[in-house]
């Protein structure tokens, strides 16, 4: 999908308009054929628009997946309910013998949407008519191996165990709805079912200061993020290597773990979502697993990085079973371990205390990156990056400040904010040593230390 978004493609609106006209003709053709006494006719008789020279995202999805006429109709039917719902009004035709709709039409109406929403039965009616053999073949298009599923394009949803498989609602994924209708990646908002926030940054790698060992470990992760898809296309390597990549960031607070997650995503043109663990972890049995399942299910087949900060709260060490609660906690950890193991994307866990992470998790990380407190030379570089050129420094010796105060980059940013407020209160751009020391003292106070 990212290749589609990065490439130069024109809007899909003109071609979708033509496709909707074709779908309308297909529906009318099937209705006329069904209500006549003639035998079923193939919908291939209704010629689809030619997409061979079309460079829109919609056309590229069709052509690159080599979708045939039936697959193209199904995709269009799933899209049409969002962009042209009136096209389905014809399905409200009643069976006069029973004063109700025709069973063969399928379909449902929503709670807020009064229009007709197609189901698998609707699809079968349009593309198969009365042909039972085609109806059986249609099942293959909704299998786990078909691109509709593997690329998370569309599916039949809401199927109850006791009801027919084609009773499921034909649903296009939010990802592809956004891609085809708007030409942009889908970015979900924070909700109870997806307790995660999109992380962004205005910084670049040039703004960051890292230990040389940290940089070396990060380079490994960057190479996989950049070339992982290419690696997994190798027949022999794909036999031995699992998809996905798991990274552990550990080190004191304020050393740049969250910023680095954003930078990795920025460089790879990916979105990174920080999971809100306070909303995920539940004291009720099964709820934590359910909440995590919702996050991972939505993230499947998307070009996202999932970022778990303070991860030891969720991925902590398992304990000896001395009570039913201990057993419950251990089951949670085992479940999370399996979901991360099976996830085919990038997962970053960050913790201040590596020793708190369960050893079973540690063995499954491809990269473990340590973020130490910055050394004196690195602290000086940070002070200069943040303060030089920002203010008119009056008798400020940044080298002495860096030497005397062993604080992290996050704390230096907090000092910068304090100094900005101090200068603004004076309505001045001048900054003094005393301003910086007061800001540092406020940081020390957070840890119960005074200077």
UniProtKB/TrEMBL annotation:
Residues 243-375 form the AAA+ ATPase domain. InterPro entries: 26S_Proteasome_ATPase, AAA+_ATPase, ATPase_AAA_core, P-loop_NTPase. Keywords: ATP-binding, Cell cycle, Cell division, Nucleotide-binding. GO terms for molecular function: ATP binding; ATP hydrolysis activity. It holds the Pfam family AAA. It comes from the Bacteria. GO terms for biological process: cell division. Belongs to the AAA ATPase family. PANTHER family: 26S PROTEASOME REGULATORY SUBUNIT (PTHR23073). This is Cell division protein FtsH. It comes from Fulvivirga imtechensis AK7. The lineage of its organism: Bacteria, Pseudomonadati, Bacteroidota, Cytophagia, Cytophagales.
